[in-house]
UniProtKB/TrEMBL annotation:
Lineage: Bacteria, Pseudomonadati, Pseudomonadota, Alphaproteobacteria, Hyphomicrobiales
SMART domains: Autotransporter
Pfam families hit by this protein: Autotransporter
UniProt-recorded name of the protein: Autotransporter domain-containing protein
Organism whose genome encodes this protein: Arsenicitalea aurantiaca
InterPro entries (UniProt xref): Autotransporte_beta, Autotransporte_beta_dom_sf
């Protein structure tokens, strides 16, 4: 929207223009050709300077100077000679229009040596202005100690290719010129270079130069003004009453020494600059009224020095207007005082640089749209200063100042669509960004930094969303990285909000408002992490925390003195420092928190733990309480890890039972392979000696989403004896060492295991059975998010495992070299973990004995391919696991005991594997396998083994 306003000054301007352009006629077409004077109508005499003519043309030929001047009386005039007015008191060339002038051409010299114009022409206003042409060619020179060219009336086209130089004005015109073109030199030693009335189109070409002691160019009104050359004025470069379109093209240079480079005293439809506009002591561009579209891709520079400029001095701005409709800058705008200023800016886009001493961008009444993708900076004061509203703001560039505010928005803009988005840098020595009125949503994914007082301060908003950095150095005592001075409906932080300064400040400071809600999954750090200290009555605050809240001076959260406050913890929460709940009915909810935490609180009325293990103990001699939240996952980790090792070992044993070169998936993955001995398959002979085998095994598992992971490695060996053609028995032993993590909890395990096993081939079906027994030594570390820093609660304990299994295999396909079998297996794993007492942490607990049982069933297809001495195997199938029977665990802390049932559950998934074995000679074979499994819940396992086997 572009609003046009009429005031007294504009009416006065129109009155003056009417007086000075009394002979204005209707608007004419702005493009006219320069008429050619036909050779037949031009007569040249060999003798001396002569004025000749026909019925239509006058011609002045080369020769001695005509000192008595020439009166133009015919439609066409051509000067090839030299004309002056030394002998008369009139202009050197003059005419009153009685000859209805159509063409005027100067190829020679026209000079006035007295205070009179060199050329003075008055063209009848009722003539066809499209046909009127004035040409001073590249060889033409017009000089005067008065006015160079004085024109009145209507001219179709005025072209200067030569030189027009004067003491007073080079050109003075009243009336209408359709098209004015300069590619030569126009200058005035003491006054304005040119003063024109109404112009259809004004163009100064790249070779054009217009220099004035006062203003370089004065135009009362114009349709289009274009400059590609040099325009330089002692006062203004261009002073324009009104213009529709203004363009300073690439390479164009317009400067004003004492005043503006460009001064426009009325509305402008379109203002474009791709060159240089510069003022040495005032505004570079000053528009007294409105600009619909302002575009700069060049340089606009104001070098004025004003120590104490204010809003009453519009000349202080590099660009000044009453209203800017659509403003776009991709170039450079520099103001030694101020940058861009207007009462209203409808839309603002900067992809270039705007720099000033103060107020690089200033809007008194507000902006509908603000977008910065470039650089806006000041050395003092405020970089972007909007005392009205910013309805829709976006910064992906840099806004910075060494002064008070990098960004200031000064009035309410509270709507669903209103707001400000920052993905760049906003930085100030004072406050990074201040929203003085209530706004919609403030969103930051970049950096907002204030050195002294606040990174971001707001007097109210529907939401503040931070995924980036909001920070203050906190040089003032009462300062916050994020400072809230009015009601903010919601704050979402997944980035960092911090104050690095002195005591009394806070990472997040609530200094005013009625309610406050925070969802924090990021980091909030300060002398006090979160400080709610309002002077007005406060209804209460709600804080959901799954991130870090840290108070460097010892207080993480200080709720207000009144209101009902709630602190809700979720997974990932860390609170470093005390929590002061203040007055009111305050509550702490840890029912959704799955970690270990030790909080020190004051003023807490209600504690909600759900099914979590929570201990609440008073701190002797103080008003504080310690809240110890204990997660069960770390205590069940030993059973899970030992079970995984047993299954890994059992897989190696089962592979040897089935005489295959393969390994089962690690962890909970287990599968078997075909029964036929590969040595028998290759040789076709019955071997009766015992078979000895040994393997290096490794395995690991990790969660696709989350932090659970484990790995283990070790050695296994065994011997198998064939009792008859259908029966085998064997023994095996293994040592495994592993490391497992669940969240920040850690378990190290060393385990030894032994097994007895056997196989019986019943013709079409082969059965096998095994019994594994094991012992594990465990070292556990449980990480606790304590109020005084991260604690580690340590414990050492033992574990025992017994795992029987039964399997069966049915042939599906046998081609001689390839066999395919259907394989099923069931295993039961029972484990017992001894009780223990943790040490090393104020949150340490004692844990009673644990017992658990796991059932594992698998069904799959296994194939084997024999190629000479090489045997290759593959398997694919599905598995299911479930906890068998409920087990309880007793946890105690400072004399309080909590009993919980261990988590029960089931899991299903798929597995696959590849293996191979090869003959090394002498009844010795090498074998290896790789297996993977994937649970539907997202647990992925992988394992591998390599070993030797031989028959003796």
């Amino acid at each position: 929207m572009f609003r046009r306003q009429i005031d007294a000054r504009r009416l006065f301007l129109r009155h003056v223009m009417a007086r000075r352009c009394a002979d204005d006629g209707a608007t004419m077409t702005t493009i006219s050709r320069i008429r050619s004077i036909r050779a037949a109508t031009l007569m040249s005499l060999v003798l001396g300077p002569t004025v000749t003519g026909s019925a239509q043309a006058q011609v002045v030929d080369a020769g001695p100077t005509i000192t008595t001047g020439v009166e133009v009386t015919l439609p066409s005039f051509l000067n090839n000679g030299s004309i002056s007015n030394t002998a008369i008191g009139n202009a050197a060339v003059y005419g009153d229009g009685s000859g209805t002038l159509v063409d005027f051409t100067n190829n020679g010299l026209i000079r006035s040596l007295i205070n009179a114009p060199a050329v003075s022409l008055r063209v009848d206003s009722d003539q066809n202005a499209v046909e009127n042409t004035f040409l001073n060619s590249s060889t033409g020179v017009i000089r005067s100690i008065g006015v160079g060219i004085d024109l009145q009336g209507e001219i179709g086209t005025f072209v200067n290719e030569g030189t027009v130089a004067s003491t007073f004005r080079a050109i003075e015109h009243s009336g209408f010129i359709g098209r004015f073109v300069n590619s030569g030199h126009l200058s005035s030693a003491e006054r304005d270079a040119i003063q024109l009335g109404r112009i259809g189109q004004f163009r100064n070409e790249a070779d054009g130069e217009i220099i004035g002691r006062d203003d370089a160019v004065i135009i009362f009104s114009a349709g289009i003004i274009e400059n590609a050359g040099r325009v330089s004025g002692g006062n203004n470069g261009l002073e324009i009453g009104s213009v529709d379109v203004f363009r300073n093209l690439a390479g164009g240079w317009i400067d004003g020494r004492d005043q503006e480079a460009v001064l426009i005293e009325d509305d402008v439809s379109r203002f474009e600059n791709a060159g240089l506009l510069q003022s040495l002591s005032s505004s570079a561009v000053r528009v007294l009224y409105d600009v619909q579209t302002f575009t700069n891709s060049g340089v606009i520079r104001s070098l004025n020095v004003i120590d104490d400029a204010d809003d009453a001095q519009p000349e202080a701005y590099a660009v000044s207007a009453r209203q800017l409709g659509a403003f776009s800058n991709s170039g450079t705008i520099e103001g030694q005082s101020f940058g861009v200023g207007a009462d209203v800016i409808d839309s603002f886009l900067n992809t270039g640089t705007i720099a000033a001493f103060d107020r690089a961008v200033r809007s008194r009444l507000g902006m509908d749209r603000f977008e910065n993708r470039g650089l806006i900076e000041t050395t003092d004061g405020r970089a972007v200063f909007v005392t009205g509203h910013i309805l829709d703001g976006n910064n992906s560039g840099t806004i910075r100042t060494r002064g008070d505010f990098a960004l200031f928005s000064g009035s309410d803009a509270d709507s669903d669509t209103a707001g400000f988005v920052n993905s760049g840098l906003i930085e100030a020595n004072g406050i990074g960004a201040l929203f003085f009125g209530r706004t919609g949503t403030i969103s930051n994914s970049g950096q907002i930094i204030g050195a002294q007082s606040a990174g971001l301060a707001t007097f109210g908003a529907r939401a503040v969303i931070n995924t980036g950095l909001i920070s203050t150095d906190g040089l003032l005592e009462r300062s916050g990285g994020l400072t809230i001075l009015g009601t903010v409906d919601r704050v979402d932080n997944s980035g960092t909000i911090q104050s690095l300064g002195r005591s009394g400040g806070a990472g997040l400071l609530v200094a005013n408002g009625q309610t406050f809600r925070l969802d924090n999954s990021g980091r909030i750090i300060g002398p006090t992490g979160i400080l709610i200290d309002t002077e007005n009555p406060f209804d209460g605050a709600t804080i959901h925390n799954s991130g870090l809240i840290s108070g460097l001076d010892g207080v993480a959260i200080a709720f207000g003195p009144d209101g009902t406050d709630r602190l809700i913890l979720a997974d990932g929460s860390r609170i470093l420092g005390n929590v002061l709940f203040g007055g009111g009915e305050d509550a702490l909810d840890v029912s959704a928190y799955g970690g270990n935490a030790l909080l020190r609180v004051e003023g807490l009325e209600t504690l909600s733990g759900g099914d979590r293990v929570v201990f609440r103990n008073a701190v002797a001699g103080t008003d504080f309480e310690d809240i110890n939240v204990v997660a069960l996952d770390g205590f069940t980790l030993a059973g899970r890890e030992t079970s995984a090792m047993v299954l890994q070992f059992a897989t190696s044993v089962a592979d040897q039972i089935m005489a295959g070169a393969r390994s089962a998936p690690p962890g909970y993955a287990l599968s078997y392979a075909p029964a036929t001995d590969p040595i028998l398959a290759v040789t076709g002979q019955q071997l009766t000696g015992p078979r000895i085998w040994g393997s290096a095994i490794t395995g690991g598992r990790w969660a696709e989403h989350g932090t659970d992971s484990a790995y283990h490695a070790g050695l296994a060996a065994g011997a198998i004896s064939q009792l008859d053609a259908r029966t085998e028995i064997g023994v095996a032993a293994a040592y495994l060492s592993g490391d497992a993590r669940s969240g920040e909890d850690r378990l190290q395990t060393d385990a030894v295991m032994a097994a007895v096993h056997g196989r019986y081939d019943l013709g079409g079906v082969a059965f096998d059975a095994a019994l594994v027994a094991g012992y594990g030594s465990h070292q556990g570390e449980r990480s606790v998010a304590a109020f005084d820093g991260a604690d580690i609660a340590s414990a050492a304990f033992d574990g025992y495992i017994l795992a029987p299994s039964l399997g069966a295999m049915v042939p599906v396909l046998d081609t001689g070299s390839m066999t395919v079998n259907l394989r099923g297996e069931a295993r039961y794993v029972a484990s017992t973990i001894s009780g223990f007492a943790e040490t090393g942490s104020a949150a340490a607990v004692a844990v009673g004995e644990q017992a658990s049982a796991l059932g594992d069933a698998r069904l799959g297809i296994e194939a084997r391919l024999v190629q000479g001495d090489l045997v290759m195997t593959g398997r694919v199938g599905a598995y299911a696991q479930t906890s068998l029977g409920a087990s309880t665990i007793a946890i105690s802390h400072l004399g309080d005991v909590e009993t919980r049932t261990l988590p029960q559950g089931s899991e299903t998934g798929t597995y696959a594997g590849l293996g191979a074995s090869a003959d090394l000679g002498g009844d010795v074979r090498v074998n290896g396998a790789i297996d993977v499994s994937s649970a539907l819940a997202g647990l992925v396992s992988a394992s591998g083994r390599i070993g030797l086997e031989g028959r003796f």
